[in-house]
């Protein structure tokens, strides 16, 4: 079996394990082994890998899931007016003819709604962004490949990262689940982090979209430091420490 096929199968098992834990609570290795049709030893290796990524905690004989991102539908109706104000300011940065990378998440989706009628290229792993823009014939739309995270409406995995290594964009509009006082950008779901990092490498300029609830927000996985950001569009990093860390790193803070 090729390494590529092995990686795809492992990613699929990891998704199924996390879904089982989140839907049914703690699960035993023997139960997961039977559900997945693999050996208990394979399940134990998968659990170890997922624990290293912060997605679950191993317990005697099995595992329990860690709290991760809320499903897209649960977040989409939260702080809509704030997200729209941030999206409007972000959209004004983009000029016709430019290329734009849009991250996963609901704020990126609100930004996509502001881009209708523009002569631009949009690259995304966000399925809701794709659905929003697919009928806009003025926009060149590039959908990245990858494994589908249905509840979170995103594409992830090594295929997504490989696609990004072959692309370059004028702008990246990046989402986050939290920004630490030192300016570190965090995420709650480790599986999304490599894609976000690949997006940063593929972009000329990186703009973080973060409403006030993201300071400090949540997240145990570091996406990047403030030195990798160019702009933060927000309705307020309230604490002086965060603002100072961003300014010292040369980040322009745009308040809505």
TrEMBL record:
Residue intervals of the HTH deoR-type domain: 10-65
Keywords: DNA-binding, Transcription, Transcription regulation
Nucleus is among the record's keywords: no
Pfam family, one: DeoRC
Entry-linked InterPro entries: Carb_Metab_HTH_regulators, DeoR-like_C, DeoR_HTH, NagB/RpiA_transferase-like, Tscrpt_reg_HTH_DeoR_CS, Tscrpt_reg_HTH_GntR, WH-like_DNA-bd_sf, WH_DNA-bd_sf
SMART domains: DeoRC (SM01134), HTH_DEOR (SM00420), HTH_GNTR (SM00345)
Transmembrane segments: none
PANTHER family documented for this protein: AGA OPERON TRANSCRIPTIONAL REPRESSOR-RELATED (PTHR30363:SF44), HTH-TYPE TRANSCRIPTIONAL REGULATOR SRLR-RELATED (PTHR30363)
Name of the molecule in the record: DeoR/GlpR family transcriptional regulator of sugar metabolism
Organism listed in the record: Streptomyces umbrinus
């Amino acid at each position: 079996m090729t390494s590529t096929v092995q990686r795809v199968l492992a990613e699929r098992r990891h998704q199924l394990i996390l879904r089982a834990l989140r839907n049914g609570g703690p699960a035993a290795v023997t139960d997961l082994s039977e559900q997945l049709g693999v050996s208990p030893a394979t399940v134990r290796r998968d659990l170890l890998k997922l624990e290293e990524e912060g997605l679950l905690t191993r317990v005697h004989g099995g595992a329990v899931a860690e709290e991760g991102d809320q499903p897209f539908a649960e977040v989409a109706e939260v702080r809509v007016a704030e997200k729209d104000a941030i999206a409007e300011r972000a959209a004004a940065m983009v000029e016709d003819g430019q290329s734009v990378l849009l991250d996963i998440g609901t704020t990126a989706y609100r930004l996509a709604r502001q881009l209708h009628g523009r002569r631009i290229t949009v690259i995304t792993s966000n399925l809701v962004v794709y659905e929003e823009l697919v009928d806009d014939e003025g926009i060149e739309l590039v959908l990245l490949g990858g494994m589908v995270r249905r509840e979170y409406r995103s594409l992830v995995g090594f295929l997504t990262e490989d696609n990004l290594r072959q692309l370059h964009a004028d702008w990246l509009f990046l989402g986050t689940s939290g920004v630490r006082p030192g300016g570190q950008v965090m995420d709650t779901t480790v599986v999304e982090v490599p894609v976000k990092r690949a997006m940063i490498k593929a972009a000329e300029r990186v703009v973080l979209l973060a409403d006030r609830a993201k300071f400090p927000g949540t997240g145990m996985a570091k996406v990047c430091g403030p030195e990798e950001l160019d702009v933060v569009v927000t309705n307020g990093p309230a604490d002086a420490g965060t603002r100072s860390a961003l300014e010292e790193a040369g980040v322009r803070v745009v308040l809505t």
